[in-house]
Design brief:
By secondary structure, this protein is α/β, with parallel strands linked by helices. Helices cover 45% and strands 11% of the residues. The chain is built from 10 helices and 7 strands. The chain has a 7-stranded parallel beta sheet. Strand 1, helix 1 and strand 2 form a beta-alpha-beta unit. Helix 1 runs parallel beside helix 7, helix 5 packs across helix 7 and helix 8 packs parallel to helix 10. It is globular.
Amino acid sequence: MTDQPVFILVRPQMGENIGAAARAMLNFGLNRMRLVDPRDGWPNPRAVAMASGAASQVLDHAGVFPDLAGAMADCDYIFATTARGRELAKPVFTPEAAMAHARALISGGARVAVLFGAERAGLENDDVARASAIITIPVNPAFYSLNLGQAALLMAYEWSRGDAQQVAVQAPGEMADAEAVARLGDRYEAELEAAGFFFPENKAARMKLNLRAMWARLTLTRAEVQTLHGMLRQLLRGRL
């Protein structure tokens, strides 16, 4: 259990932007950062210089992962920040509503993450598909690009406002983490592949993406994951 969300920077490019995100986080009392495959490697002296003193503690304790699956494996609920529609059926939150929901989840013991994409193009469709919900920042539609540090600052500020209205959530101790849901999705995808479900071939990639998005959106409990494993096991047994 943690008392704050973890900010996951997915394939960040410039060390200066990582440092700016660290400063933004510490400005509002957040210190849990994870990095996925930073372009210029890690540690990065430009990130440390930009973090400017005290905020370097955020970088010192940042987790570094080769892929997003590993970075979010222990998280129960994941928000993906994106300014554009991705044609994936996901709950969509404003920053304020997202952080209110995050507080409600975390107050019961859930582990929550917020994903931020690379500076050049943001999160990829596959990244968004792995998330439970989307955060869309209502910026000018004619110019929707936000600097990584700015996006982190906005989300950290909304988190810090506190006293958010609590919303009803399921008992977090029963929630399945992202790794368990991913394993379930992988198993179903493999069996559907073997059964010839992904047809025609030119639509297979999109079908698989939609299925991954569906699994993440469901916010399954551990018991539900086990039930779905058992259902598939029984169906496969019936084939023999």
